[in-house]
Amino acid sequence: MSLDEKIDDLYQQPLDAFVTARNALAKTLTGDEAKRVRALVKPTVVPWAVNQVYRQARPTYDKLIKSGERLRGAQIASLEGRRGADVREAGDAHRSALADAVKAAERIAAAAGANPPADALMRTFETLSLASEPPEPPGRLTKPLQPSGFEALAGVTPSPKRETREAAQVRKGSGSGRAASRSPEPARSESDRRKERAAEEAARKREAAIRAAAAAVARAEAAEQLARTAWERSHDKLLEARQALTQLKSSKSEV
Fold first, then answer.
1. Pairwise CA distance, residues 151 & 129, whole Å
2. Residue range 204-239, pLDDT digits in tens
3. Residue 102 and residue 121 in contact, taking contact as beta carbons nearer than 8 Å
4. What pTM value is reported for the model?
């Protein structure tokens, strides 16, 4: 077994056993390999739960990552002005995959006696799925992640609004009629160029702000879905408890 495989096994350990397992592994190694293992950071509960989804529920994890890639691609295509970018459909699929991943993490963590916050799990899964590059190797996450709202837009410059065909025809027609008599337009001044650059920068910031707001809405909708599921489970337990109480009272009165 290679060292990387042994490290992967280490991150599958129960959270409380990580340090002991890490130290035991380091003692079997020498030199740089031993130093590398000793430097491994123990995950907190949220990244540990995310790691376990990667290890124990890979289809759910892969579905989330793929849905994040599709959403990122759709957002970039829309921002660049390309046609056929269905951001709404990609966003719906991503929210569903995000909720499934959080549920899987909660289930695995609960079986191990851990209770990571659902909102922190959601933020970490969202950041992982929308990042152009993973912040840490898959399955070896050590700290919770916080989405900035701009993950899907890294390196993208909004394209200018496309001119409609009708507007282009009008412009060309009016321009051809005056071409012979009209003198060339004077060169733009530096002040005009600065204003144009400022307007373009403002447009980029506005588009980025819109995308950030859309990401916030997606997080809120996913959180609402998780909260609704938790409420339904609690409500079912309440009904069961009331039914059990009613049955006990009834059996007591019969006696």
1. 9
2. 777 666 666 655 555 555 555 556 555 555 656 676
3. yes
4. 0.60
